[in-house]
Amino acid sequence: MKLVVVSAGLSVPSSTRLLADRLAAATAGRTDARVRVIEVRDLAVAIAHNLTSGFPGPELAAALDAVTEADALIAVTPVFSASYSGLFKSFFDVLGAREKDALAGKPVLIAATGGTARHSMVLDHALRPLFAYLRAVVVPTGVYAASEDWGAEGLPERIERAAGELAALAAPAAPASPASPASPGAPAAPAAPVGGGADSAGRTVPGEQAVPGQPPVPGQQGRAADGGLAVVPFEEQLARLRG
């Protein structure tokens, strides 16, 4: 499985990159994923050139190809002004402009870092709508790490839960099993009547299909052979009852 991590941290060392690495390790521990990390800060100039010229340089093109071809994606951004960073957004703007369906159906784990826990809702009011717009499949658990979360209880559990959800979504689907034959000795299901049924008196009525235990209702009978509904005139229903 190809797992690509997009980290938009700006400093070195970066808590954003640290969170990205921990999420990648937790996900790779559940799969045989080959992990590639993309540091958006290293592509800042190339992203700006792409926004103005419309063409990516070789390094940015390789990063965009990696994200497009990934089986799963981890996207981590620092929080600035109560939202994702501008550089993080610009990377995905360039990706969407290059190929609008690059993330369509792709499992994505979203995460963010910030100086205070008061920005933890950025995952749901900024990141999740962004990736929903790009038609990605975002895992239910997002991971936000404030400064006080590092070394505290709760963060490792959130990382493990989100990684498990991403690994489960990215796992190849099991091949569909052929329809199993009926077990030997099992009673055969009664065949549905074709082209006929029975009226309330138990008489066969051509062109109708009886429902076991539910006598036909006068005026609502008459299931057509082609699957549609045919209205049986009341006179015909009355004649059948009298006949």
What does this structure look like?
- There is one protein chain.
- The protein starts with a strand and ends with a helix.
- Helix 1 crosses helix 6 and helix 2 crosses helix 4.
- It is built from seven helices and nine strands.
- The strands form two sheets. Strands 1, 2, 3, 4, 5, 6 and 7 form a seven-stranded mixed sheet that branches.
- 35% of the residues lie in helices and 18% in strands.
- The protein is an alpha/beta fold and 243 residues long.
- Strand 1, helix 1 and strand 2 form a beta-alpha-beta unit.
- About 22% of the residues have low confidence.
Topology, number of strands: 9
DSSP strand content = 15-25%
Count of DSSP helices? 7
The low-confidence runs, each spanning 5 or more residues with pLDDT under 50, are: 174-227
Radius of gyration: 30 Å
- From the spread of the alpha carbons, the general shape counts as globular
Terminus-to-terminus distance: 71 Å
**Structural class by secondary-structure content:** alpha/beta
The percentage helix is 25-40%
Largest pleated sheet: 7 strands, mixed
Mean pLDDT: 81
What is the string of helix and strand elements? EHEHHEEHEHEEHEEH
Question: What would the keywords be for this entry?
Answer:
single chain, 243 residues, alpha/beta, seven-stranded mixed β-sheet, two-stranded antiparallel sheet, 7 helices, globular
